[in-house]
Request: fold
Amino acid sequence: MVVKVVTDSTSDLTPEIANELGITVVPLNVHFGSETYRDGIDLTTEDFYRRLPQCNTLPTTSAPAPGTFAEVYDKLSEETDEILVITISSKLSATYEAASEGKGLTKSKARIEIIDSLWAIGALGLIVISAAKAARAGAGLDDTIDVARRSIKSVDLRVAFDTLDYLKRGGRIGTAQAFLGSALKVNPILSIRDGLTEGIARVRTRTRAIEYLYHFAISFPDVGEVAIEDATTPAEAAILGERLCHKFAKERIYWMKISPVVGTHVGPRVLGIAVLPKK
Reply:
């Protein structure tokens, strides 16, 4: 039986990518007051950002319930006896804990292994894709875990922001706190290190921010796959992607959209790129 790979919606995998590779995506939740929406299912990124300006208070987010993971395990165990779950960093979300608690609630007899990726968004997406491809190629659970762990160590990520206010308000700003308070209008470049948000650089203009992302991607000597994603600036993503298509084959570039849950914490004008070197 083929190993079944599970992740959460902060991986920003599109339904097309997930369906093609047989990946199950468990949605986190977005809360507008008393209303709860499943990330990417009841609420798209476009709908989220249309609604955001109408809010008096910032929406909140929450991890899936352990029971939601248990239901996924039960369903997948009808098709396989090996399940690999790869979640967002446990330092950014309670999703890993929920996935682990769900293991204790399931009726499944399958072997279930859960990995804390220490990443999020496109970096998490590329890790999950690498594991799913290995599983489809016939790798058993232990070998698929090895692929995922190697990808966790080698993947890298850069995200350009035009404001850190959302990260600050959502409590996810990490070491990028040092970038606050500048009198200058700058575009911060952030990544994730050891599971937490980290400030990398500051550039003066949006054009230079896009240039920074481009040079980050081409700095790798041997690129396996790339993920490009935006929240509300698809034209910028297209510009970046078009330039990278001259360097990398189009089939090695994945196009993603920032999910509503992530959008709650990063704001509207973020542009990110993740790179997974060849193994």
